[in-house]
């Protein structure tokens, strides 16, 4: 539980955890436990809670804290990052303090919609850092497809130079490969820190991003063991082998990145793999038709066949 | 305090209340009292709390309830509508029940961004009505400039036909005049209810809307007495006189409808009129420069002169 | 016809001209003449053609040039600015050259949707200026409500410093008053040019903008004589008197700024004032209902009464 | 050249053709020829010109027609669909007539941004169909990610029932699989026509879409032979084999669907494959860095290895 604070050295796979509900829509804390164990069994290096895909916006304040505490209490030395984005800075501050006291390693903050111009972004984060103080490590969540706020690399670099508590970029812009390279290039400037970069977008460009200097992934793909193994293979210099493995899962990676329906697909897989008791989302949510389920089944069978062909065993897909 | 539930007969001015904070950004409940008294002194017929302009999104859950209870406890027989829009339906349900128990007359619900197609809107509200049950009166907040969701009149009419608890349209589309007329025309169909329509957009088209069948206003203009007097004059058949009065205030109505800076202007006026102790907004918020304040002063002086010329006394602008 | 090129000294009212069509939707060049004469009779100082409100996007390439030549041939020494925004830079270049050869004084360019970050805007305009060369005066059209591109004052200042051909800001951001003041303040820096600023948004904040340093208006209000007289009064030091006159027209200024329906209202007024033969817009366009027309008539009668009361004669409204 | 008009029976691969330019940005008609031949060599069944990815918006009116005529003159009996979307209906009508006279098989129309409500969409297309007359076959381009206009299946069904000239759905919504199934289900209603559905989105969900009833693809993937072979395999009942082939190309399909940079990648591949003389886009356009090119090369090498492993020969990737 004393996992230490998040630093620029963070790497590996921080899984974005789904939030399980019962068929009635109640928060299912027992499934939080089994899902946490499932993720641990997949070898994830850390957790990200209350992210955009975690249905955090449908939880009450109390439920949010309950989930955070429940997971932190179960993951031992793994670090937990908690999303604390909110329209009001005071709420960002309160939630951040609350989760840090509960044992979080750091917090993640996305820009609110409507920030204007490079200075608008810089000034907002300057306010956030001042409100949180120097002791809370912060992840910049760069997801303009959802926030509408484009982060120029120069602004990120100014923030890194001026605020030591900014230790990670959650990289989720699209297109984003050039930005990743640009940030890594700029870090060669004497005196600038090298921060951690974990990538999102469901992992759709994961091998390319690792080749360009990403330190791992922060996403919610329903076969997290793939994310972990690909990371391990890259870390041990086997980039091509890593990408071979990734490509086997790519049809499902791509299937899950579909907007609106993606979470329903992920929860269905987690349900089928025994990690949660119900694939239910809280209303308003998406759900799968019989056709959607048959299609998913077929894709999983194809995955298992290809894993078997590659000598990796169908267990990975189906367990 | 037993103001009864909101019905289709609601009319007059439901002021959208600002939320006062101290210079430190703390919720200022004493100013909630003085502001409430100020609104009552202006003759408003009702209140709308936790609206988009009330900085509701910057309050904690507890603070929200505190504000609602504080106002309800002070307004006697005036009805109070509370905004309960939330990304999760369960949160809509909980907050709605909580405020109804506290004495609210009804709740207001805006569509969440991303609803697709006519049926998407209908189905969302059908879910809301089912979640809230038949006993909580609901206002449809039609503000596509903020939500991105256009409400076709035909969809509103289907909802009115199918759900008795839908009693009011908060009319804030732009352009919106034709839609207002269309809704009123469609109510002539045998068997369809005539619902209450209160208009927003800072009152920018208030006289035109009253002529087309609106029942009053639900907005936050900082001289609420104008909204009330214009309503009274219309109600007593003096439409031209009403519009004459409106036109005197129009320069300031128009000044306040500026996006982003509008709330800072309103709070500055409320502060100058002694209704609140500080014009402070919670961060992130807008604020006024010295130039902005001098400009506002000049506009207020012009308003007072024109009121004096019209024999209405500067007291109305400055008290 | 030798009106000279647009410079930083441009001032007064550049009317954004409507484009008249027959009831069949054909371009009506005779009405282009009568409308041009009408604008000249109102005392406008210049013209802006092929703007967003001119239905330029519904003209063929040939029709566009026909309109430009027709107007330029009729306005004597008045300067004509032509909108040349286009998705492709090559098309911007071609159209700009064509209209400059035809006698235009300068061109107006809005940023294309999707520019990212401060540098994205700077670089786009740098490309434009390079494509057009140093001899074509350019107006930056700052209308983020339509383009989605916010212009930070610092970016505008960099462009002014680096490109002499940038001589005017068409100011149409909202809120925009603070930006106007900021640009004027920054021009006090030694060596920086003072550019012309003409304001849009239908003139809704015209007196405030003139007080803050605007040089006039570039908009399409259907009573252009008001725009001209207000400008003249300001120019002769009678700011309060100017604003008194503006306020008389404000109900109609506000009526015309309604999105979607605004152009239909303007064309209806121009039609009633005898300036064009038909209020028709090319499809897809908006049109007025009988209720809309009766409402407009009532507002015009109110305007005439107030002008008469102010000793200014109903002629101004009705001629 | 007498390819006949587009009908509901259209199927196969209609390639969305890139538009080649020289390094100076001039239209390169010789490369139009070689690119057309390249596509024909890949076995495509038809062509779509002046689509969103064809940089049509950067062509002059004359250049557009030149491209259309050049391609039609070269493709023999293959059908050519031409994009004619425009802000003005009159321009839609003129361009449609011009290309039909030049030998096009049909036209494609996307909804303009800003259409409101189900009826807004229906009424716009009703206007289009009336303007074009009954003899021009029309494709509905359903691409809400670009247009902002969601097409409810019910609206599409009404249009199919009421307008015989609507013969094809260009299916590019996301998520879109459920919509495709819904449209196919609804066609079982007695009396309703079954229309052709070709899918876009770079082919990212091509096998799933074929399984759900799509008739082929209309997209611009730079290895069109894959699109054709997958179609052929499906058509001959070998769905699993088709998907096996698709999966080999999926890493590159996914790479090309990156926004903003996708066209630069496609033109680079077409350039490397000898189909065009320069990968240049007209300004403003995207381009590739050295890192981007090295990455692409690596991905192509991986593709060739996998094709070789599958006994399909590296020729397919590199020829």
TrEMBL record, chains A, B, C, D:
InterPro entries: Aldolase_TIM (IPR013785), DapA-like (IPR002220). The keyword Lyase applies. Residues 286-313 form a coiled coil. Pfam families: DHDPS. Gene3D superfamilies: Aldolase class I (3.20.20.70). Pyruvate binds at residue 218. Keywords: Coiled coil, Lyase. One of its GO terms (cellular component) is cytosol. One of its GO terms (molecular function) is 4-hydroxy-tetrahydrodipicolinate synthase activity. The keyword Iron does not apply. Belongs to the DapA family. This is 4-hydroxy-tetrahydrodipicolinate synthase.
